TrEMBL record:
Domain of life per record: Eukaryota
Main localization (coarse): nucleus
Protein name as it appears in the record: Transmembrane protein
Name of the gene encoding the protein in the UniProt record: TMEM203
Species this protein is from: Pseudolycoriella hygida
GO biological process: tRNA 5'-leader removal
Alphabetized UniProt keyword annotations: Membrane, Nucleus, Transmembrane, Transmembrane helix, tRNA processing
A molecular function GO annotation: nucleic acid binding
InterPro entries listed in its UniProt record: Alba-like_dom_sf (IPR036882), Pop7/Rpp20 (IPR014612), TM_Fragile-X-F-assoc (IPR019396)
GO cellular component, one term: ribonuclease MRP complex
Transmembrane segments: 158-182, 194-220, 232-249, 261-280
Compositional bias annotation for Basic and acidic residues: 14-28
Region (Disordered): 1-41
Amino acid sequence: MDHQNQPIKKQKNNKPEHQKRFFSENHSFKKRPTSKPYQRKEDIYVTNKSNFKAQINQCETILNTENTNEIFLHCVGNAISRGINLALTLVANSNNGLGYEANTSFIELIDDFHPLHDDEDFTLQKRLNSCLHIRIYRHSKNIINFAKMFKLSELVKWLGLSEFEIFTNLLTLWIFTMLLSIRLGGYLPDLDWFGIFSPLFCSDLSNGYFCVIVGIRMFLNNDNRRKSFNRFFWSLKFLILTVVFKYLLCRKLSGEQNLDYFEVFAPLFVLLQLIAVRACQLSNAN
């Protein structure tokens, strides 16, 4: 028999079909209340009937007055978008003080079908619905995000240092911390304190040479010589005060001179006051 003339049989789809919802005109439909498995004070359930502003005030009250650093928003089905808007509003109003993370799950819902006639039976319908759980937490108060507090351009103006000088200071400070760790660990017992502070002194020498070259070029090529003088003398004061502070600290740690720590840190206090005055002057100028 020719196989080409045989009718092609349709293959059955083995995928499970979705269970159709029960519907009957002889029953009255009623949803059961959604279960609330979490009953802590930090758990807030969001529904479409919830007052948006009232829930924002509730969340902020819990975070600000209660002894807690996190809350949990739970929303089901159509209320998920409302819960997301609530979480984003709280984070936006916190000025980067709050963070959030989300998880999804499923919940089983039960619908009741009550008979309208005596010859009908009571029927239950179970179905699954999506859930969203949003954890809103407060950032640690001990962690200061320095990059968000100041911009590089602001640091350059307030400190009176160029990007090259800032990079040099940070690099030599990293080398200094490495030498200090090795010295305190007992691996280089013969290394004195002046040897440990030598990277910082080299940085000051390099920055001093850089300031002299830049000052001369600004004086020769710039019509505003007053600005070049101010830039040069500010860098000179900055270098002198930092070098004196490091020198006194080395003598204090090595025991060569009996100094109080107030005397050692006096140049640093003067430098901080000068930076504060400079920052105020720049703010008023802007």
